[in-house]
């Protein structure tokens, strides 16, 4: 199990940041990532041999988050997402960028998080999200265009350079 502990220490922050940007909820991201790592630990023999175990954890966390929202939506008929006027932040992102990312659609946030923060290619991102690589490119293009509009050309170019 030492290799799982090493994997956890090396990847937990990346997984958290990616899921947080994708879902926009700090507590939800913490819970989803914790659950995903717990599942990875339970199935470590097969997860360890996965071509991209970090992607497996991130995808599991995103699925856990979606399942939570589905259950909550059935329990409460309220709007989902962060409270209006409250902009969550991520240590690695400045406040303006975090606020702009939170205005993107859920799918665009997921693509930005996986392609830019997790540094995955379009094929892997598409497999994780269940969409084609071409659709990944479309969502990324639209997200970057929206970010350019919200932040100005220089900030979006700087973010695009991280790909």
TrEMBL record:
It holds the Pfam family Sigma70_r4_2. Coiled coil: none annotated. Residues 101-159 form the HTH luxR-type domain. The keyword Transcription regulation applies. Keywords: DNA-binding, Sigma factor, Transcription, Transcription regulation. One of its GO terms (biological process) is DNA-templated transcription initiation. It comes from the Bacteria. GO terms for molecular function: DNA binding; sigma factor activity. NCBIfam families: sigma70-ECF. Belongs to the sigma-70 factor family. ECF subfamily. This is RNA polymerase sigma24 factor.
